[in-house]
Design brief:
It is a single chain. It is built from six helices and six strands; from the N terminus they run E-H-E-E-H-E-H-H-E-H-E-H. It has about 200 residues and is of the alpha/beta class. The protein has a single domain, classed as Rossmann fold, CATH 3.40.50.300. It starts with 9 loop residues before the first strand and ends with a helix.
Length: about 200
């Protein structure tokens, strides 16, 4: 389901960025998705440079696929300029926070400001993502509070665990499908404009 069928004629490409504080699980999320659950990093490695992972997602009931260029960006303040530079031009983003860390949730506003600078004219596809949801006894950010914030920001909301591979694919499949739907709407607009 993650690689296009040989008959796939349309392949869209989209750059997406993972934004959030250091230690929120952005790298683990990206690596688990990219490896189809086979690779969960057991040791936290601090990102100081962006990491790019590419994976193709087939769009169900179509002959299309979306190639996701997933850019995992550093989450520490000293690297904010690097993060902004590498995030520019993305058409999709994930605002990632650690469900066991209130400070990472409070930092979402800073990352939303970065996300709003990604593209000047086209709408962005975005999600608010709570990680480490398998650590229920350590949960510090209630799901309802996060859902309310996502709704107020007009973002989709997902809860996941890279450690258990819970709902990881759903996030990226949502981005791929939303990219395809935006393409379809754009084409309909072009056809409608030329018919007028």
């Amino acid at each position: 389901m993650t690689t296009p069928a040989p008959s796939s004629r349309l392949c869209l490409r989209t750059k997406m960025v993972l934004l959030g504080d250091s230690g929120t699980g952005k790298s683990a999320l990206a690596q688990v998705f990219h490896s189809e659950g086979a690779s969960f990093p057991k040791v936290h490695m601090l990102n100081t440079t962006p990491e790019l992972l590419v994976k193709t997602v087939a769009i169900p009931d179509t002959d299309a696929s979306v190639e996701l260029f997933v850019t995992d960006l550093p989450g520490l303040e000293p690297f904010l300029d690097v993060t902004k530079r590498h995030a520019h031009g993305a058409s999709a983003f994930l605002l990632v926070f650690d469900s066991t860390n209130k400070d990472s949730f409070s930092g979402i506003g800073k990352w939303l400001k970065v996300a709003k600078t990604l593209r000047e004219s086209e709408p962005l596809i975005g999600c608010l993502v709570a990680t480490k949801c398998d650590l229920t006894k350590r949960r510090a950010v209630p799901a309802q509070q996060a859902q309310d914030v996502a709704r107020s920001l007009d973002l989709e909301y997902f809860e996941c665990s890279a450690a258990t591979n819970f709902e990881v694919d759903s996030i990226f499949y949502y981005i791929a499908n939303a990219t395809y739907e935006a393409y379809e709407e754009h084409i309909k607009g072009l056809v409608g404009d030329s018919a007028s």
